[in-house]
Structures are given as structure tokens and as C-alpha cells.
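Dear H.,

Thanks for agreeing to be a second pair of eyes. The structure we're designing against is below in C-alpha cell form, covering all 166 positions.
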């Protein structure tokens, strides 16, 4: 079986672009997490079993947590972390670093796209994910940035895209 046909990758905003920032108790954040869970259920029902996440702060971590919750009920689900470079979380708060490390440890696979940070490593990570998937799930507010670039690249590559509007 072609693994790409059952692989869904994710892109979404970091806390600085989210209306609630880092306040995950905000009703809008709770609603988004519920929407991610519902979308993942539908994606699973459509036959997807492997999920790729870039592990950035914000929506990526919400996605990883939702996939792991799905995997706890459906053991054929796998989660792959596509990490842009070593030290991705070095500048994050200690609690966020712990959350990140916990999620990395729970992934079925961790792939480092490269080991040293360079200005293009985030884009390389995003292309790595798109190039190995047939579906992209995005949390997107319409603004320029990495999420928009990934969404446009996925569409140029012929991926089906599902967008959760912010």
C-alpha cells in the first residue's frame, strides 16, 4: 500500500497569530480543539491512518494532542513528528518545552528534517510533510505567512485540503 494515500499532514498558526495567544482556556481555543477532534474523526473515517505534524507551538501541538487522543482509541493511528531542526523548542517557556518533549516521546516516528537551524528549515519541514501526504488539514486565518505558503504548496502538489477558518 502507498503510505502517502493514507497520510494527512497539518499546518496552522503559532500563538502570536491566534486571537487568544497562549490562553488555551479561552472559549475560542476550546472550540478549535473540538473542531480538530471532529475533523480528525472524519479524516480517520475516510481511511487516513498516518498523521504528520511539524511540532511548532500553537496549533501544531493541539493537532498532535488530538491525534494522540485518537490513537488511544484507535491503535492503527500513527503520528510522525517532522521537526525542522534540533533545538526547535529551545527559546520556548519551560512548560511549553516539557509539553513538546512529552509529545515527541509519544510520537511513533520523529524525523529531523535537518540538524542545524537555517532560515529555510521551517519551509523544508513543511514541504517534507506535504510531499509525503495526500491530505492537508489547516487552521488558517487568511493572512500571509508559513501556513498560507504550506497551503498553497499543497494545492500546487494536488493534495486535498481541508481548512478550519479562524
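And this is the sequence the design step returned. I haven't edited it by hand at all.
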Amino acid at each position: 500500500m502507498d503510505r502517502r494515500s493514507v497520510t494527512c499532514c497539518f499546518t496552522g498558526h503559532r500563538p502570536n497569530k491566534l486571537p487568544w495567544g497562549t490562553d488555551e482556556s479561552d472559549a475560542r481555543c476550546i472550540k478549535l480543539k473540538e473542531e480538530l477532534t471532529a475533523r480528525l474523526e472524519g479524516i480517520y473515517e475516510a481511511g487516513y491512518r498516518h498523521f504528520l505534524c511539524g511540532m511548532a507551538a500553537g496549533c501544531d501541538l493541539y493537532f498532535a494532542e488530538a491525534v494522540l487522543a485518537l490513537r488511544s482509541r484507535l491503535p492503527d493511528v500513527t503520528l510522525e513528528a517532522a521537526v525542522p531542526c534540533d533545538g526547535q523548542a529551545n527559546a520556548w517557556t519551560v512548560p511549553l518545552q516539557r509539553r513538546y518533549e512529552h509529545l515527541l516521546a509519544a510520537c511513533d516516528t520523529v524525523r529531523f528534517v535537518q540538524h542545524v537551524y537555517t532560515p529555510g528549515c521551517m519551509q523544508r519541514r513543511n514541504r517534507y510533510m506535504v510531499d509525503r501526504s495526500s491530505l492537508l488539514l489547516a487552521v488558517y486565518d487568511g493572512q500571509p505567512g508559513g501556513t498560507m505558503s504550506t497551503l498553497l504548496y499543497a494545492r500546487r502538489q494536488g493534495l486535498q485540503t481541508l481548512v478550519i477558518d479562524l
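Two observations from my side: The two ends are 35 Å apart (CA to CA). The domain at 3-165 is CATH 3.40.50.450 (Rossmann fold).

Warmly,
E.
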